[in-house]
Amino acid sequence: MITRILKSIFFKKATGKAGRYARNSGKLFELAKDVMSKLQHVGMRENLAEFAVSVQLLIRMVRAYASGEYKSLPWKSLLSIVAVLIYFVSPIDLIPDFLPFVGITDDVALVVWLVKTLGDDVKKFSEWEKRRKTINIG
Predict the structure, then answer these.
(1) Average pLDDT of 19-46?
(2) Cα 101 from Cα 42, distance rounded (Å)
């Protein structure tokens, strides 16, 4: 399924937009807001707790990058995250979101694939977040 998604016109369009978004902090914050809004709607409708946690992690990565707090995220990884998030908020993709239960399947598969693919970057960001929380608390 991942290969079909990555080769789809829908993901290619999202990838094309990713660079413009990644260069504009305002667009990144707006995307994060749109993703959170959709996640709240979808997360309540479906039983997707693990998926929601992964999407929230990606949102935090984008926000931290956009705010300038976290610049250790490689450009290619940022573009991949932004493309996946753009794909997620798009109602028309490989499996349209208005289809009950199955409409979110491609989004879930794509997010799971991305988090696994970016394993090292996700790990580094999570460690950075933990250190930051420790510093702010301590």
Answers:
(1) 89
(2) 10
| Domain contains 44 | yes
Residue 138 lies in a domain: no
The one-character DSSP state at 92 is S
The whole domain housing 124 covers 2-133
Q: Is residue 123 part of a domain?
A: yes
- Number of structural domains the chain divides into: 1
The pLDDT tens digits for 79-130 are 999 999 999 999 888 887 777 678 888 999 999 999 999 999 999 999 999 9
Question: How far, in Å, are 7, 42, 70, 76, 136 from residue 120 at the CA level?
Answer: 24, 28, 15, 13, 24
Q: Average pLDDT of the chain?
A: 91
- Sign of the Cα pseudo-torsion (31, 65, 1, 38, in order): negative
